[in-house]
C-alpha cells in the first residue's frame, strides 16, 4: 500500500470496503484529496505505534497475526489454521491478508523464507 501511495496513488481501499466508503473515496479523490480506508489507516497507526523507531513490521503484528504467520509458514491450509487456533476460516483469511500486506509478502515461498530468517521455523535435521 505504501508503495502504491509513493507511486502516486491518490487513495487506497480494501476489496472488502463498503459502498459508502467507496463513494466517499471517489468524492475525496475527485476533489483533489487523498483517501485511505479506515481499516488501513488503523493498521498503519497501530504499526507505527508498535514498531517505534525500529521500523520492523513484524513488531506491528498482533499476537494472533504472529500465530497465523507461523501456521502459514508451516504450510497449513486456512481450514487447518482455523482448527488449530479455534477461529473461523474467514477470520484466518482476514489475518493472512493483514500479515501479508504488513510484511510486504506475496507468495508462500516468501512467507517461509521470512519465517526462517526470523527464526520462526526450524529446518528439520
Q: Tell me the number of strands.
A: 2
The percentage helix is 55-70%
The global form is: elongated
What is the CA-based Rg, rounded?
A: 16 Å
CATH level 1 name of the domain at 54-120: Mainly Alpha
Summarize model confidence as the mean pLDDT: 83
- Name the CATH superfamily classification of the domain at 54-120: Winged helix-like DNA-binding domain superfamily/Winged helix DNA-binding domain
Overall SS class: mainly alpha
- CATH level 3 topology of the domain at 54-120: Arc Repressor Mutant, subunit A
| CATH architectural designation of the domain at 54-120 | Orthogonal Bundle
What is the terminal separation in angstroms? Answer: 38 Å
Can you tell me about this structure?
By secondary structure, the chain is mostly helical. It has a domain at 54-120: Winged helix-like DNA-binding domain superfamily/Winged helix DNA-binding domain (Arc Repressor Mutant, subunit A). Helices cover 61% and strands 3% of the residues. The protein has seven helices and two strands, in the order αβαβααααα. Strands 1-2 form a two-stranded parallel ribbon. α5 crosses α6 (89-103). The longest helix is centred in the C-terminal third of the chain and has 15 residues, at 89-103. The radius of gyration is 16 Å and the shape is elongated. It starts with a helix and ends in a 7-residue tail after the last helix. The model has no long low-confidence stretch (mean pLDDT 83).
Amino acid at each position: 500500500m505504501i508503495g502504491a501511495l509513493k507511486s502516486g496513488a491518490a487513495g487506497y481501499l480494501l476489496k472488502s470496503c463498503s459502498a459508502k466508503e467507496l463513494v466517499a473515496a471517489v468524492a475525496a479523490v475527485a476533489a483533489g484529496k487523498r483517501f485511505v480506508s479506515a481499516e488501513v489507516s488503523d493498521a498503519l497507526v497501530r504499526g507505527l505505534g508498535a514498531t517505534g523507531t525500529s521500523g520492523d513490521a513484524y513488531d506491528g503484528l498482533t499476537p494472533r497475526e504472529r500465530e497465523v504467520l507461523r501456521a502459514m509458514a508451516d504450510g497449513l491450509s486456512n481450514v487447518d489454521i482455523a482448527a488449530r487456533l479455534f477461529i473461523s476460516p474467514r477470520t484466518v483469511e482476514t489475518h493472512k491478508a493483514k500479515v501479508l500486506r504488513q510484511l510486504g509478502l506475496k507468495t508462500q515461498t516468501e512467507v517461509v523464507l521470512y519465517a526462517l530468517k526470523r527464526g520462526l521455523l526450524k529446518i528439520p535435521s
